[in-house]
Amino acid sequence: GSTYSSKVFRVTFLTLAVSVAVPLLGVTVLLDCPIDPQPISLKEPPLLTGVLEPNTKLRKAERLWENQLVGPESIVNIGDVLFTGTADGKIIKIEDGEIQTIARIGHGPCGGREDEPTCGRPLGMRVGPNNTLFVADAYYGLYEVDPDTGETKTLVSTKTLIEGQKLSFVNDLTVTRDGRKIYFTDSSSRWQRRDYLFLVMEGTDDGRHLLEYDTVTKEVKVLMVGLRFPNGVQLSPAEDFVLVQETTMARIRYYVSGLMKGGADMFVENMPGLPDNIRLSSSGGYWVAMAAVRPNPGFSLLDFLSEKPWIKRMIFKLLSQETVAKFVPKYSLVVELSETGSYKRSFHDPNGVTVAYVSEAHEHNGHLYLGSFRSPYICRLDLQHV
């Protein structure tokens, strides 16, 4: 009797499973998918050994101004005064521990992702030669901000057509020492910042990605196209090339003016994570903050999905970006590269205990200030004691 009942159970269970799965599949096929993912070929991630060996060095960082600011993406200094831009559209000055809003490029209300396009989102930030601030706002464009008065001046607006196209996702910038030229990234011509996960998952090379603004002639030139999610940018110390982080491809390219577009241009390939911002280190190299890691040994979701567009389609037919973001492991990683692109050292916080999400590592006076695109604090790491 028991084998008969287990058979009946199996048949009933299978029938039930099929009767649920088939309509579900049918519905899934009919559902619209917001993205059109492309297969991407990534090499197997580098082994986390040697200088990349996991550690807990980032846990030695202290959290500053916790819950007093939200998503301080990029950080700059004028003397000991800190400046940053936050997720609620503000440009903030922190002097003697006091936080003050000095400017906003957009306007309220600011809150959820639907407010972002009007609220604005200051991302990359730099200091020019006359202590002026240069700010890349994801939705509004390139701005100059007076750090004392908070007066803002538009340099390049996202409403302006550049070679027949508007900017869609202005991300980071780097400025020559004389302040004459600003190199900046437009991460996509299809997605805005609030849809950055769509941009990563779609994997298309749809933007004009490195641009140059001449502050004297007011001209904008498109220098590089066809990158997948170009993000952080940094001029080399000698200003003879510009480095551009290509987030989706886990690599850094370089651009040399005068070289043919897309000429010999790979700086670092197959990184252990998805690079966000890049800044100079005092040793003549570069600090790179990883927005997400590609664990090896371990399971890298990004690598697993890279050549399976159909799974990505299913995921985004059924789940929101916010839900998908929850599956990205909290693991913070900052690497220091030499001037030639080799790894010098790495600071980790597995599970993001102290430093949860890191977008930028900015060195100042022997400390590393860690910006974040979503944490409610800035972290500071004493480089003498790691």
From TrEMBL:
<feature type="domain" description="Strictosidine synthase conserved region">
    <location>
        <begin position="171"/>
        <end position="258"/>
    </location>
</feature>
<dbReference type="InterPro" id="IPR011042">
    <property type="entry name" value="6-blade_b-propeller_TolB-like"/>
</dbReference>
<feature type="transmembrane region" description="Helical">
    <location>
        <begin position="12"/>
        <end position="31"/>
    </location>
</feature>
<protein>
    <recommendedName>
        <fullName>Adipocyte plasma membrane-associated protein</fullName>
    </recommendedName>
</protein>
<keyword id="KW-1133">Transmembrane helix</keyword>
<comment type="similarity">
    <text>Belongs to the strictosidine synthase family.</text>
</comment>
<dbReference type="InterPro" id="IPR018119">
    <property type="entry name" value="Strictosidine_synth_cons-reg"/>
</dbReference>
<dbReference type="GO" id="GO:0004064">
    <property type="term" value="F:arylesterase activity"/>
</dbReference>
<dbReference type="GO" id="GO:0016020">
    <property type="term" value="C:membrane"/>
</dbReference>
<dbReference type="Pfam" id="PF20067">
    <property type="entry name" value="SSL_N"/>
</dbReference>
<dbReference type="Pfam" id="PF03088">
    <property type="entry name" value="Str_synth"/>
</dbReference>
<keyword id="KW-0325">Glycoprotein</keyword>
<keyword id="KW-0812">Transmembrane</keyword>
<dbReference type="GO" id="GO:0012505">
    <property type="term" value="C:endomembrane system"/>
</dbReference>
<keyword id="KW-0472">Membrane</keyword>
